[in-house]
Amino acid sequence: MILSVRDLKVSFRTNDGLVRAIDGVSFDLEESEILGVVGESGSGKTVSLLAVMGLITDPNAIIEGSIRYKDRELVGLPARELRRLRGNEIAMIFQDPMTALTPVYTIGWQIAEQIRAHRNISKAKAMERVEELLAEVNFPNPHEAMSRYPHQLSGGMRQRAVIAMALSCNPALLVADEPTTALDVTVQAGILDLVRKLRATHKSAVVFITHDMGVVSELADRVMVMYAGRVVERGTRTELFSDPRHPYTRALLGSIPPLTGEKPRRLPAIPGSPPSLLRLPQGCAFGPRCPVQYEPCVADKPDLRGGTHAAACYRVAQA
Amino acid sequence: MFYAILRRFGQMLFVMFGISVIVFLIFFATPGADPAARIAGRNASPEVLEAVRHSFGFDQPLYVQYVRMMEKIFVTGDLTSFVNRGWKVVPAVMDSIPVTLSLVFGAAILWVVVSIIIGIVAAATRDSWLDKLLMALGLLGISMPVYWLGEVMNLITQSRYHDSWAFSWVPPLGYKNFSDDPKGWFLTLVIPWITLAILYIGIYGRVLRAAIIESLQEDYIRTARAKGLSETRILLRHALRTSLIAFVTLFGLDFGALVGGSALLTEVVFGLHGIGKLTYDALQNLDLPMIMATVMYASMFVVIANAVVDFVYILLDPRLRTS
């Protein structure tokens, strides 16, 4: 077990009161496993992983629960200790490669900076390593690419540079926050191939955050679906895609246009919009948009129930 | 890169040419006014008027007049003032340049160094008491008029506390040449430097703090944190560098204007005969050749300062290098 998150709660103090962005999220991650985290914007998928990284810098944030990385508790770990893990054992790839790199330094410099922050090696040695890394993420001309500035590279190339940077210290855990969302579909496929290849070569465990069910179905070993700060369903990829249990998961899968068969006249969409975290319903947060809502859903929040394939829905428990 | 610099240099020359034409036209081709009468000064005799008319070529077409004027300023340097009979204008300007440059350069070094420190410290400790204190002091510095501050400085260092241990080193007002007396040069300028710099320290410190705090919100700062860098390194290497652009822009404008004569109040208060003082006196006497020369000089410095700013941009931000 490389990462074990238990009952993670993240809240923010705001002028309108306490907002709970993450409400009791638990999950485990085995070595070299890919976990897909799915949900729409505001479902808390990014915030929960930022909490794992210790990257929530907002002084109004309150983080509760337990995040254990290789038997070390990360919640409440001093900033210095956390910094030693970050970028070294736990690395992160961000959503928008256009803005994720500092515009005024070459990508070689930026990758070497990370290596030298964690390894006691000379600049020349670090640069050699940078060249290897860039070759590994399929830069056609790694030596030349090192001296390029971010604005001189295309989006896909920048994302490769960001990935090379994340891999520079051989992280045991890689957190990818929608790394393909801002890219063209063809470039996306290349990045996904890369992530898969790197899992094989570096043996890193990967948490892959996305709102794209297609990406998850290609990549993930296990999937976790989030809604309004809670996990609503989790299971292996096959379990989740062949037998979706939570109405939200089903609705998400239903809104993917089919490639074969008759084309639907209108693509089914989930009615309504996600609830404001300030005014969550007392019962199930998905309740107001749920086609199968009934009395118990209004009264109280359902807990996640089941073994490896679990869903937080009273209807599932009933069946 | 070389081509960009060359092109910028060409633009600079073009702008300066434009300025010289406009300034010339304002002073010498205003309809209904006789430039000869203005150059000759009040109550000039008809003989003097005739001499002026001939020496500036006012009996010839405008472009000849323009060329003559520029020749007098830049080539022969024998433009003479008629208000102060026989006073050569160009050497007078050349004599006051080192005074103004000494004042403004020294003050600029002071305000750049101090305001960068203040901006960084305030941004790093934002919303703490230290940040609030520094910003309040900055506002105080901006609010104090420079002539008032200068007089207060003089009152303290020249008269009231001049005999105390703290200010007995302050020499009397006036300027000493660097080549004659480097120590005297430095000592006479310390108080003027501080006086002139205080205003800009306030402005620049606040501007830099705001720029740093803005760039700390950027995505690449989050990347830098995810890399496991220390907060100090993130601030100095990643946030500061991108924040300096606004700072440099402001600096180019202020520095050019100051060297071009805006340091007048400081110069007057401390008895420094610089460009500002020269222009001010020329305006009082309506000394047209002198005004012409100082305006040309001032515009030249504004243009040069702006070109230097553009070069610094290129150094700071690689995105500007290719275009």
The proportion of residues in beta strands of chain A is 15-25%
Count helical runs of chain B: 13
What ranges of chain A have pLDDT less than 50 throughout 5 or more consecutive residues? none
SS elements, strand count of chain A: 12
What is the level 1 CATH name of the largest domain in chain B? Mainly Alpha
> Care to count the β-strands of chain B?
2
Roughly how many Å is the radius of gyration of chain A?
21 Å
Oligomer: heterodimer
CATH topology of the largest domain in chain B: MetI-like fold
The named CATH superfamily of chain A: P-loop containing nucleotide triphosphate hydrolases
Please state how the strands of the largest beta sheet of chain B are arranged side by side: 1-2
> What distance separates the N and C termini of chain B?
10 Å
- The arrangement of helices and strands of chain A along the chain is EEEHEEHEHHHHEHEHEEHHHEEH
Overall structural domain count of chain B: 2
Q: SSE order of chain B, as H and E?
A: HHHHEEHHHHHHHHH
Q: How would you explain this protein's 3D organization?
A:
- The complex is a heterodimer of chains A (319) and B (323).
- Chain A has a single domain (3-89, 169-257, 271-318), classed as 3-Layer(aba) Sandwich (Rossmann fold), CATH 3.40.50.
- Helix content of chain A is 34%, strand content 23%.
- Chain A has helices spanning 45-53, 79-85, 107-118, 123-136, 142-145, 155-167, 185-202, 213-219, 237-242, 247-254, 295-299, 314-318; strands at 3-14, 17-29, 34-38, 61-69, 72-73, 90-93, 173-177, 205-210, 222-227, 230-236, 305-306, 310-311.
- In chain A, strand 4 (61-69) and strand 5 (72-73) form a beta hairpin.
- The longest helix of chain A is centred in the middle third of the chain and has 18 residues, at 185-202.
- Chain B folds into two domains: 2-83, no CATH class; 91-320, MetI-like (MetI-like fold, Orthogonal Bundle).
- Helices cover 75% and strands 1% of the residues of chain B.
- Chain B has 13 helices and two strands.
- Chain B has helices spanning 2-28, 35-40, 46-55, 62-75, 89-124, 129-143, 146-160, 182-215, 219-226, 231-262, 264-269, 275-285, 288-316; strands at 80-81, 87-88.
- Chain B has a two-stranded antiparallel ribbon.
- In chain B, a hairpin with a 5-residue loop joins strand 1 and strand 2.
- The radius of gyration of chain B is 24 Å and the shape is globular.
- Chain A binds chain B through residues 53, 55, 57, 83-88, 91-92, 94, 96, 99-104, 113-114, 117-118, 149, 151-152, 162, 165, and chain B through 218-220, 222-230, 233, 237-238, 241-242, 316-319, 322.
